[in-house]
Amino acid sequence: xxxDEGLAERIRERLGDDxxxxxxxxxxxxxxLCRGNMAVGVTGDDLMVRVGPDATDAxxxxxxxxxxxxxxxxxxxxxxxxxxxxAEDAELAGWIxxxxxxxxxxxxx
Length: 109
Hints:
Elements: H1 5-15, E1 21-26, E2 29-34, E3 37-43, E4 46-50, H2 56-60, E5 65-68, E6 75-81, H3 89-104
Antiparallel strand pairs: 1-2, 2-3, 3-4, 4-6, 5-6
């Protein structure tokens, strides 16, 4: 599955040259990892965000979100944000920071 390279580039620009961030192809798209833990990614035209189990319900209350589910088993702690819901840079930045903050709270891999 192809992924939205434009969205991936916007994420790269937002993350800057943070040495703790790496990229890896995952889930048919691309993922951005913070100290080895996935923070955000792009699958198709959508943004994947790792928010953590405790923040899942609040994240799902936001427009354009759904639980991440690739195998028929939804993954609590992960949400997908529709590409059109992150068309504005401020919205995208907020989601990126949520994902990066959660990933940074985890032990490095």
